[in-house]
């Protein structure tokens, strides 16, 4: 880690610019110091930002879900089969899933 004191970033965008420049230069950026910075770095650099994830208990204590920033667990085989069976017989469900997969869902 850098022995210099962490710079004061005036805005979240300034912090994100720092992370972007550091990654491009091949050096370790300063980790996020606020919840806002943590959320922003996950929006812009999710794969890189995982190194800064606090423990699930800490995430909950700062108001974030325990699984924030983590890859979702795969669905069980039986659940996948249930979804496929429902897709076959339920036209409304099929349409809703199609909208979600094609970016037509609510943001």
Can you put this structure into words, describing what you see?
This protein has two domains: 12-62, no CATH class; 74-106, no CATH class. The protein is mainly alpha-helical and 107 residues long. The longest helix has 14 residues, at 12-25. The mean pLDDT is 90. The radius of gyration is 19 Å and the shape is elongated. It has helices at 12-25, 35-44, 46-49, 56-61, 77-89, 91-101. The chain is built from six helices and no strands. Helices cover 54% and strands 0% of the residues.
For the secondary structure, the number of strands is 0
Q: First CA to last CA: what distance?
A: 38 Å
Give the rounded overall mean pLDDT: 90
Order of helices and strands: HHHHHH
**DSSP strand content:** under 5%
Count every helix, treating DSSP H or I runs of 4 or more residues as helices.
6
Give the structure's gist in a few sentences.
The chain has 107 residues and is mostly helical. The chain has 6 helices and no strands. The protein folds into 2 domains: 51 residues, no CATH class; 33 residues, no CATH class.
Draw up the topology in text.
Layout: H1 12-25, H2 35-44, H3 46-49, H4 56-61, H5 77-89, H6 91-101
Helix pairs in contact: 1-2
Structure keywords:
single chain, 107 residues, mainly alpha, 2 domains, 54% helix
């Amino acid at each position: 880690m850098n022995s210099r004191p962490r710079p004061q970033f005036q805005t979240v965008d300034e912090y994100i610019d720092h992370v972007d420049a550091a990654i491009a230069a091949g050096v370790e950026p300063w980790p996020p110091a606020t919840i806002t910075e943590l959320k922003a770095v996950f929006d812009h650099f999710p794969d890189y930002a995982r190194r800064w994830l606090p423990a699930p208990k800490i995430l909950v204590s700062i108001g974030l879900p325990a699984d924030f920033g983590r890859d979702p667990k795969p669905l069980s085989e039986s659940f996948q089969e249930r979804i496929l069976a429902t897709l076959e017989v339920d036209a409304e469900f099929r349409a809703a899933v199609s909208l979600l997969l094609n970016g037509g869902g609510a943001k």
